[in-house]
């Protein structure tokens, strides 16, 4: 697929937005909300993450701006994860599981490892190692954003 279907609930209309050149929606792309009325598209091809930004609503290919590219190859080698490589030493397939608002962070799955990438600092770390049960049944990652430290209401006496 070379476009994204957009449903405008306000006007009850549908439209399409063309993806950037060379990007195909084959399960390796995730959208993320941008603060300034735009959307980020995070695209993974092999071990290369590309971050595209679309501002406005025109939807033509020229509206996409490549804002960042991160190679995961060296980052994965530096982690030396035992369950994330196959026998010949090459990295197993990587997939995007979740992306935070403004594409600030990305959760990735590689083999049995769940990895967290802080995009701003370019820091990759292992967050979790899945058991065989979760490896065969898949997993869901739903990031929850909150104010820190949390503010609780005052209890009435």
From TrEMBL:
InterPro entries: AT5G49610-like_b-prop
Highest taxon, organism lineage: Eukaryota
All copies of domain F-box protein AT5G49610-like beta-propeller, residue ranges: 2-152
Alphabetical list of PANTHER family matching this protein: F-BOX DOMAIN CONTAINING PROTEIN-RELATED
The protein, known as: F-box protein AT5G49610-like beta-propeller domain-containing protein
Natural source organism: Panicum miliaceum
């Amino acid at each position: 697929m070379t476009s994204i279907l957009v449903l405008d609930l306000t006007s009850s209309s549908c439209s399409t937005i063309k993806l950037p050149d060379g990007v195909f929606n084959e399960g390796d792309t995730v959208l993320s909300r941008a603060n300034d009325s735009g959307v980020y598209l995070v695209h993974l091809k092999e071990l290369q993450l590309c971050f595209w930004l679309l501002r406005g609503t025109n939807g033509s290919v020229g509206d996409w701006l490549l804002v960042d590219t991160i190679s995961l190859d060296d980052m994965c080698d530096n982690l030396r994860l035992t369950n994330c490589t196959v026998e010949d030493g090459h990295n197993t397939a990587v997939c995007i599981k979740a992306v935070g608002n403004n594409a600030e962070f990305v959760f990735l799955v590689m083999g049995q490892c769940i990895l967290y990438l802080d995009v701003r600092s370019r820091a990759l770390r292992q967050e979790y190692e899945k058991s065989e049960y979760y490896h065969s049944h898949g997993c869901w990652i739903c990031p929850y954003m909150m104010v820190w430290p949390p503010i609780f209401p005052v209890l009435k006496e």
